Amino acid sequence: MRRICVFCGSNSGSRPAYREAARQLGTTLAERGVGVVYGGGRVGLMGELADAALARGGEVIGVIPEALFEKEVGHPGLTELHRTRTMHERKALMAELSDAFVALPGGIGTLEELFEVWTWAQLGFHGKAVALYDVEGYFGPLLAYVDRMVEQGFLRQPHRDLVCQASDPAGLIDVLQTARTPAVDKWLDPPI
Asked: What is the pLDDT of residue 186?
């Protein structure tokens, strides 16, 4: 695995553990020789992640739309910084440059990015692993809701199982390296 795309926000959240988790993930990825692809910002969890990876000599590639370059304070010290015209171009390039996807705790933008790559995996558009870095149980309520989707017949269990999780950076990378995301060829079949 050469590069992992990390979805995270331009905010830091209310708990110091979120910033620390972003720093630990950036450090661990760099130490394992795995590059970071992320949204290109210098602030919030994005900045924490990027700065930690860069401090350990890691490759950090940012992808940011022109319209957000000033708002998210584009990071000037990255290995590469790609500027795109739209959010759609941003997400497509981030996906193209990455071998797997991770979501840190974040807001609706982070969730939107997560659900898009999860949906792409469900449809068989990619076979890349998708994971949650579940800091202090942040994603527990979301996963409970997703499990309710399965229970209520709106999501099949194999599609729910396309997303793995871990609560520490080393475990997260290990899970991503062993995860297999098979192309789902019967996603339209009704649940059994």
From this structure: 46
The overall average pLDDT reported for the chain is 92
Residue with the bigger pLDDT between 72 and 117: it is 117
Q: Which of 63, 62, 61, 58 is nearest to 27 (CA)?
A: 58
